[in-house]
């Protein structure tokens, strides 16, 4: 079943979160590769980061917004043409069993 | 065993903005499927969100109305989970720095006490799409996706289903007064989830809680919570254990059912949305919003009682709806008797509107009609009995009361001689009640007054009728 | 690009002829290069004809076809981002840069091959086959904007747009011997750029020379209300002061960028390039960017985290690939994404999901955000002393095709010279500065602080004017011959 790499990754759990199906071969290959990559990422453990502010944006800008004005941009037809499956004017998926929200 | 119930609510409120939260699409309820969408709210490749300033401001305003602290620094985060009604499979929400924190809602309890239910936080996010389920498939309509959604989270301060209902009612009133949401339940403008636990009286720590979802009306919420209290009691009483889980309320069957257990809890992977810049709120902005803040329902109710001398009940009725409160204030403004105006509005008008299935906004009776009706009675031009008839005509025709009174000759009869004529014939025709009165049974005069009013076809001044009756009855007795 | 523009202006060339000339070259050479996923010939010719019929416009790029990386949305065109995931997908809107190109009279043309969702530095991660280097088709073009760079290098595009998240414009430009500009974060609108890592992505030009790069940048830059990260501040057109030279300009050589691992031929070419600038009057001094060694780890944590959310929308529900006969919604997600995404994309999504997941956020993501602060500060300090920095773009010339496919970590480490700038939000450019003994191009990277595009382009132009490299072109006749032999 699920197994953790040296760096603590439970690849099945993460692939589950990311909704990516992995073949056994892929899973085996990724396991080793990700282990190596995570090891390299732990390089950041060398840094003393106490009191350093995290950077989330490349530029320090704030309060960017738009005024509340409605504008119709009807892309319904184009959107429905792109949909893999549709039902009249809605997008169709297999029946949803509600486990979320 | 006796149990105490603890409930915390998460209330989702759609804001009544003209456009969506992060794109310019309108979000009118009931539009044809997917007609109010754009690449942004469909989660198309390459699009970017730009926040709606009005939605941010209305969330702050709500915070101020609920006595919250407004964050000086706030940001949007991505909350990741896969669901077909989520166009991007992440929802733009707020995690650790919501726009508002703290605050409370005052709730009137059944025993007449007032209780403060604490507000933990208010944050802003985007609504998801709507799916319709068929036998083997579901159909998704993205019109609702991206509607600005305010999430109001309470402290676990609510002691039972009735209190939850009262809280929701008070909250709705405040939001409607603030003009931030239409709070129309049928249209899903206001929806709530609950965390609920029970514990035996005397136990200190809270019991294991369950989360209840899918409560779409306030009464539904009350029923769902009542059901859940009973379900938990039964488990505990039979020696069982409550599982921490999420349950869905089914309004049709009136039961809750398991949606997911604790093991399936989500790992939402919140992180700051790199597409959206942080929000910095200064004192000036908060001051301006505070100045613009509308009077809260409770404050207004207290003022109505004080200023217009009306009963707490009438004040409550008149402040339940901001439009109604405005209507009443306009009507009371020129009225000689504000209390009489309150009666006309809260009894006659609301009743008539309800019968006609109308809202105050579309009332054919205007505030100035109420004013003139009140004044016609106060001046003695018509009796309050006649006023009711005139009201009915105004409601039907939308014409002014003076005009109706004049046209139909409804002016009250003040002429004592005319009244005395009616009084004498009534005494003659009703020897029984007359004798009773003379024998000291004060109440008997009521029937005689009624008879005189009837004889005058309601036009006699009741005060004069009363006086003349007493004169005539006593005189006869001498 | 400018010759075509001049020829069209002078009436010597029609817009249709400009498009047809490219189509002809693509027909001849692209079988060997694989730069174009789609030429969008029909739409380009239709637009060209309409323009030929109408009055000549004033736009700076009137009639000039510009190649578009497959990651930028053009209305009515495919936008597959080099991925099978977006098969049959047509964009219903124009990205802001495309609108600006059209406003300037340009003809957006073609969908240029790329590493899938811009993840990669060799273009071998494309879902539609790798792009070969026009200088030697046995070598990679670089990535992720490999199609854009190879198309320009081989004369199959007059100019092109690419995108740069961790070097994806500069590196393939360097490997293909063309000019690639990565603007300051926020100077070019990202609206219409399919996001890889939103806080790092930036669109920029890939051109034959610096003057064209300046012209194309001037056309596409500017504030966009549809992008909340787009910057308000405006600066004068970079084209105006392009010939101003580098006299007195202070250029820093970051010590850490000349460390072990730098290919000797690359280092020699770059150092010669710096000497050229010095000879032109620039003052050169060594500077230090002490946190450079943490940049790759920082970058791959932040970029994959953002990517894991950005790519969640590719789920087979609203557009793109959907697996056949899904049992339920969960099955639909798992299989559609398993079938649609290639290995590198899956790897990065898994990595990004992991660093954000419960219990690991602080250890990876938050630490990386803080390390980003340190890397930014390094640059801020350096730019207090110097105007620009100079270094190599890629530690090595182009790899042979297939050399690095199964060692993603090795590949990531090769991004060391380009990712720090994306983390800091700075601007940078790659200009050709030499050829290896084997005849593969080498690029010189110049880097500037935010909003320094004008200085950057001015220095690059001064260098270019003094050196022959930008005039060197791959021998397409040899390529064609090889192509014929191969067929
Ligand atoms: Zn929209």
Please, could you describe this protein's structure?
The complex is a heterotrimer of chains A (about 100), B (about 475) and C (about 475). By secondary structure, chain A is mostly helical. Chain A has a domain at about 10-45. In chain A, about 30% of the residues lie in helices and about 5% in strands. Chain A has 3 helices and 2 strands, in the order αααββ. Chain A has helices at about 10-15, 25-40, 75-80; strands at about 85, 90-95. Chain A has a two-stranded antiparallel ribbon. In chain A, a hairpin with a 2-residue loop joins strand 1 (about 85) and strand 2. Chain B folds into 3 domains: about 5-285, no CATH class; about 295-410, no CATH class; about 415-475, Arc Repressor Mutant, subunit A (Orthogonal Bundle). Helices cover about 40% and strands about 20% of the residues of chain B. In chain B, strands 1, 2, 6, 7, 8, 11, 12, 13, 14 and 15 form a 10-stranded mixed beta sheet that branches. In chain B, helix 5 packs across helix 6 (about 310-320), helix 7 (about 320-335) packs across helix 8 (about 340-355) and helix 8 (about 340-355) crosses helix 9. Chain C has about 475 residues and is α/β, with parallel strands linked by helices. Chain C has one domain (about 1-295, about 370-485): Amidase signature (AS) domain (Amidase signature (AS) enzymes, Alpha-Beta Complex). Chain C is built from 16 helices and 13 strands. Chain C has helices at about 1-10, 15-35, 40-55, 95-105, 145-155, 170-175, 210-220, 265-280, 295-310, 330-340, 345-355, 360-385, 410-415, 420-425, 455-465, 475-485, and strands spanning about 35-40, 65-70, 105-110, 130-135, 135-140, 160-165, 180, 205, 250-255, 285, 390, 425-435, 440-450. Chain C has an 11-stranded mixed beta sheet with strand order 1-3-2-6-8-7-12-13-11-9-10, with helices on both faces. A two-stranded antiparallel sheet of chain C has the order 4-5. In chain C, helix 2 (about 15-35) runs antiparallel to helix 3, helix 7 (about 210-220) packs antiparallel against helix 15 (about 455-465) and helix 9 (about 295-310) packs across helix 11 (about 345-355). Chain C starts with a helix and ends with a helix. Chains in contact: A-B, A-C, B-C. The interface between A and C is large, with 56 and 75 residues. The structure holds zinc ion.
């Amino acid at each position: 079943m699920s197994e953790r790499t040296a760096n603590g990754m439970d690849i099945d759990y993460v692939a589950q979160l990311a909704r990516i199906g992995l073949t056994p071969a892929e899973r085996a290959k990724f396991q080793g590769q990700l282990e190596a990559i995570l090891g390299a990422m732990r390089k950041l453990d060398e840094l003393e980061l106490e009191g350093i502010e995290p950077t989330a944006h490349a530029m320090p800008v704030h309060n960017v917004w738009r005024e509340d004005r409605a504008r119709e941009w009807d892309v319904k037809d184009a959107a429905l043409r792109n949909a893999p499956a549709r039902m009249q004017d809605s997008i169709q998926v297999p029946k949803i069993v509600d486990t979320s929200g | 065993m006796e149990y105490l119930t603890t409930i915390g609510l998460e209330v989702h409120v759609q804001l009544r903005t003209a456009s969506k939260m992060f794109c310019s699409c309108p979000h009118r309820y009931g539009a044809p499927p997917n007609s109010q969408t754009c690449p942004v709210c469909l989660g198309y490749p390459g699009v970017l969100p730009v926040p709606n300033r009005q939605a941010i401001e209305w969330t702050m305003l709500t915070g101020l109305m609920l006595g919250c602290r407004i964050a000086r620094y706030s940001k949007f985060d991505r909350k990741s989970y896969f669901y077909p009604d989520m166009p991007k499979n992440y929802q733009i929400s707020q995690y650790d720095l919501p726009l508002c924190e703290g605050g409370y809602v005052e709730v009137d309890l059944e025993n007449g006490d007032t209780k403060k239910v604490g507000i933990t936080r208010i944050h802003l996010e985007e609504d998801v799409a709507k799916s319709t389920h068929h036998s083997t498939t579901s159909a998704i309509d993205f019109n609702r996706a991206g509607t600005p959604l305010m999430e109001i989270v309470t402290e676990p301060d609510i002691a039972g289903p009735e209190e939850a209902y009262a809280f929701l009612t008070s909250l709705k009133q405040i939001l409607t007064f603030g003009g931030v949401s239409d709070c129309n339940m049928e249209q899903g403008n206001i929806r709530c989830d609950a965390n609920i636990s029970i514990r035996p009286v005397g136990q200190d720590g809270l019991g294991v809680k369950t989360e209840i979802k899918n409560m779409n009306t306030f009464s539904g919420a009350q029923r769902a919570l009542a059901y859940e209290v009973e379900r938990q009691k039964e488990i505990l009483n039979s020696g069982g254990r409550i599982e921490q889980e999420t349950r869905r309320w089914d309004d049709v069957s009136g039961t809750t059912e398991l949606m997911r257990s604790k093991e399936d809890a989500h790992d939402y992977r919140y992180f700051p949305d790199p597409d959206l810049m942080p929000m910095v709120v200064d004192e000036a902005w908060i001051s301006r919003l505070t100045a613009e803040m509308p009077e809260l329902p409770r404050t207004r109710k207290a003022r109505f009682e004080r200023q217009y001398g009306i009963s707490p009940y009438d004040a409550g009725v008149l402040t339940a709806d901001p439009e109604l409160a405005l209507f009443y204030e306009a009507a009371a403004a020129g009225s000689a008797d504000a209390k009489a105006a309150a009666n006309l509005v809260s009894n006659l008008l609301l009743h008539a509107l309800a019968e006609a299935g109308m809202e105050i906004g579309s009332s054919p009776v205007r505030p100035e009609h109420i004013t003139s009706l009140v004044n016609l009675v106060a001046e003695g031009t018509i009796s309050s009995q006649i006023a009711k008839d005139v009201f009915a005509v105004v409601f039907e025709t939308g014409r002014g009361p003076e005009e109706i009174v004049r046209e139909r000759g409804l002016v009250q009869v003040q002429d004592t001689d005319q009244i005395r004529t009616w009084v004498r014939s009534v005494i003659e025709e009703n020897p029984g009640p007359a004798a009773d009165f003379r024998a000291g049974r004060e109440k008997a005069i009521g029937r005689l007054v009624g008879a005189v009013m009837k004889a005058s076809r309601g036009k006699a001044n009741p005060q004069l009728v009363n006086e003349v009756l007493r004169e005539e009855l006593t005189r006869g007795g001498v | 690009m400018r010759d075509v523009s001049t020829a069209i202006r002078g009436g010597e060339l029609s817009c249709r002829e400009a498009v047809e000339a490219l189509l002809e070259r693509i027909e001849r050479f692209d079988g060997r290069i694989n730069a174009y996923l789609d030429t969008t010939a029909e739409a380009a010719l239709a637009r060209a004809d309409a323009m030929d019929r109408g009055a000549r416009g004033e736009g700076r790029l009137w009639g000039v076809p510009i190649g578009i990386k497959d990651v930028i949305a053009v209305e009515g065109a495919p936008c597959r981002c080099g991925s099978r995931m977006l098969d049959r997908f047509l964009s219903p809107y124009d990205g802001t840069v495309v609108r600006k190109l059209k406003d300037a009279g340009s003809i957006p043309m073609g969908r240029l091959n790329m590493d899938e969702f811009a993840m990669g530095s060799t273009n071998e991660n494309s879902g539609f086959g790798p792009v070969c280097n026009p200088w030697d088709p046995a070598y990679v073009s670089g990535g992720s904007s490999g199609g854009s760079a190879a198309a320009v290098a081989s004369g199959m595009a007059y100019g092109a747009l690419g995108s740069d998240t961790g070097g994806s414009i500069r590196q393939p430009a360097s490997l293909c011997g063309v000019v690639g500009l990565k603007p300051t974060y926020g100077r070019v609108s990202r609206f219409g750029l399919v996001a890889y890592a939103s806080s790092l992505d930036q669109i920029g030009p890939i051109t034959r020379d610096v003057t064209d790069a300046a012209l194309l940048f001037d056309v596409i830059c500017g504030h966009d209300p549809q992008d909340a990260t787009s910057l308000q501040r405006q600066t004068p057109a970079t084209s105006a002061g392009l010939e101003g030279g580098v006299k007195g300009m202070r250029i820093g050589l970051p010590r850490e960028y000349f460390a072990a691992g730098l290919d000797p031929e690359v280092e020699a070419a770059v150092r010669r390039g710096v000497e050229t600038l010095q000879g032109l009057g620039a003052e050169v001094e060594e500077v230090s960017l002490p946190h450079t060694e943490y940049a790759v780890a920082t970058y791959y944590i932040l970029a994959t985290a953002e990517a894991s959310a950005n790519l969640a929308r590719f789920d087979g529900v609203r557009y793109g690939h959907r697996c056949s006969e899904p049992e339920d919604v969960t099955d639909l997600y798992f299989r559609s994404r398993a079938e649609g995404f290639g290995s590198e994309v899956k790897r990065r999504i898994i990595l990004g999901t992991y660093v954000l997941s419960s219990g690991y956020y602080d250890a990876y993501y938050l630490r990386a955000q803080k390390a980003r602060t340190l890397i930014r500060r390094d640059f801020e300090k350096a730019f207090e002393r110097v105007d620009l920095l100079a270094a190599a773009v890629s530690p090595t010339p182009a790899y042979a095709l297939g050399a690095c496919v199964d060692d993603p970590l090795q590949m990531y480490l090769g991004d060391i010279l380009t990712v720090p700038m994306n983390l800091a939000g700075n601007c940078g450019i790659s200009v050709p500065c030499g050829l290896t003994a084997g005849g593969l191009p080498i690029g010189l990277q110049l880097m500037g602080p935010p909003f320094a595009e004008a200085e950057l382009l001015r220095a690059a132009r001064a260098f270019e004017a003094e050196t022959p490299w930008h005039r060197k072109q791959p021998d397409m006749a040899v390529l064609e011959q090889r192509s014929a032999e191969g067929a």
